[in-house]
Design a protein that fits this description.
By secondary structure, this protein is α/β, with parallel strands linked by helices. It is built from 14 helices and 13 strands. The strands form 3 sheets. It has a 7-stranded mixed beta sheet with strand order 2-8-7-6-5-3-4, sandwiched between helices. The protein has a 4-stranded antiparallel beta sheet with strand order 9-10-13-12. Strands 1-11 form a two-stranded parallel ribbon. About 45% of the residues are buried.
Length: about 400
């Protein structure tokens, strides 16, 4: 079963016929609930903040740690090697990239910084265009860069949507990068990445997408959407752990476009007493540069976390992210329909194809008390925002309990 990525991640809602096809073939999602112990202990509707660690990811992490605790015997070494070797290809498959286009990063912002720094935007006299539904931590970084002299242009939303025409006005021939969050953590707004990519490319610029709220939650196809660079951490919809993430750099942009600012690898010494006989055809310090996205890796990362991610990605790909989205969508649709009559103002666009629903509460403190009393976990932020994000371990009974608590 296939869902059109442009339709899903563009400005229109997922088609009814496509959703019906997905829903008719959904896997046995109730069986997943027991894999997430926290979801059985409370109503956990907060995947957009942090996915509870599933048993299978924890098992992968334990198996990797056993290798370091007890050594490589009894298959431990083979498992550790395979998990780290195969996790990049698995993630690449998830977003329709090449394994050579994937690098390890400690978090989303580290990947974004590698791209921004490597593009040498400020040194070239170029500018960067973003908007205020991008991740606030990234905007904070960009404000710092603006104070340091970079031309940073931040488009403001209109009624919790980004008007494409406003982005169009901000982009010019000096724009080097358009930086967005594909699915906004602020309110679940979904950018029309394909249109923005075409706009950026027409001006000689590139498109970066923060996909932390998209990968594992909704289908993502970086090739179909024209995304040049993307990054995400693993502890949200990817069902992984903190301290690990992925960076995608389109093959054609590696090295020539996004310059190398770190040089990972391991040098050898081609002279005595390091070697018994010097290789006259080689330099004293033979240097072999990385030829793939690993060139942007700063150093050691949390391999324990990647072993857990290996297990999570195998299951995610087997289930199908389109199915995961189709399962969560009726819960989100119900929230969008039933929360406004209870006095909560919806700021997530009705047609936003994401698994995030955000409302504004008239009295946030009173709302927080209701949620605590009912043992319900969501995110409350700012002066009045309540963010709800159902996932594959939730069910309609969780939605019933939330609506009952907020009534």
């Amino acid at each position: 079963m296939t869902i059109n990525r442009r339709q899903l991640l563009g400005s229109t809602a997922l088609g009814v016929s496509a959703l019906a096809a997905a829903t008719s073939k959904l896997p046995d999602f109730p069986s997943f609930r027991n894999e997430f112990p926290r979801a059985t202990q409370q109503v956990y509707l907060d995947a957009a903040a942090n996915m509870p660690l599933p048993k299978f990811a924890a098992e992968g992490m334990h198996r990797y740690m056993d290798f370091h605790m007890y050594g490589p015997g009894e298959g431990r070494g083979e498992y550790a090697s395979k998990a780290i070797r195969e996790v990049k290809p698995l993630f690449a498959k998830l977003i329709n990239a090449k394994p050579s286009e994937i690098g390890f990063v400690v978090c989303t912002k580290a990947g974004e910084a590698a791209v921004v720094n490597g593009l040498r935007i400020q040194e070239s006299g170029g500018n960067l265009v973003t908007n205020d539904l991008h991740y606030a931590g990234s905007i904070h970084d960009y404000i710092g860069r603006r104070k340091a002299g970079m031309d940073v242009r931040i488009v403001k939303h209109r009624n919790w949507r980004i008007d494409f025409r406003d982005m169009e006005k901000a982009i010019d021939k000096k724009t080097k990068l358009v930086s967005i969050t594909l699915v906004s953590n602020v309110n679940g707004w979904v950018e029309d990445a394909k249109a923005l990519s075409a706009l950026a490319h027409a001006h000689g610029a590139y498109l970066y997408a923060d996909i932390i709220q998209a990968a594992g939650s909704v289908p993502v196809d970086v090739k179909a959407l024209g995304i040049d660079f993307a990054a995400c951490s693993n502890y949200k919809w990817l069902q992984g752990a903190r301290g690990a993430g992925f960076l995608y750099v389109r093959e054609e942009c590696q090295g020539a476009i996004v310059k190398d600012l770190s040089f990972p690898g391991y040098v050898h010494f081609n002279y005595a007493p390091w070697v018994p006989q010097r290789d006259s055809a080689a330099e004293d310090f033979p240097y072999i540069a990385s030829k793939d996205a690993g060139r942007y890796e700063a150093g050691n990362v949390s391999y324990v976390a990647y072993a857990g991610q290996y297990e999570a990605l195998k299951r995610m790909l087997a289930v199908g992210v389109d199915n995961i989205y189709a399962y969560a969508k009726p819960m989100c649709d119900r929230l969008k329909k039933e929360l406004p009559p209870l006095g909560y103002q919806l700021i997530t666009p009705l047609d936003a194809p994401s698994s995030i629903v955000v409302v504004q509460a008239a009295n946030l403190r009173a709302t927080e008390q209701k949620l605590r009393k009912a043992n319900i976990q969501v995110t409350t932020t700012g002066a009045n925002r309540v963010r709800i994000s159902p996932a594959l371990y939730n069910n309609m009974e969780d939605i019933n309990r939330l609506l009952s608590a907020l009534a």
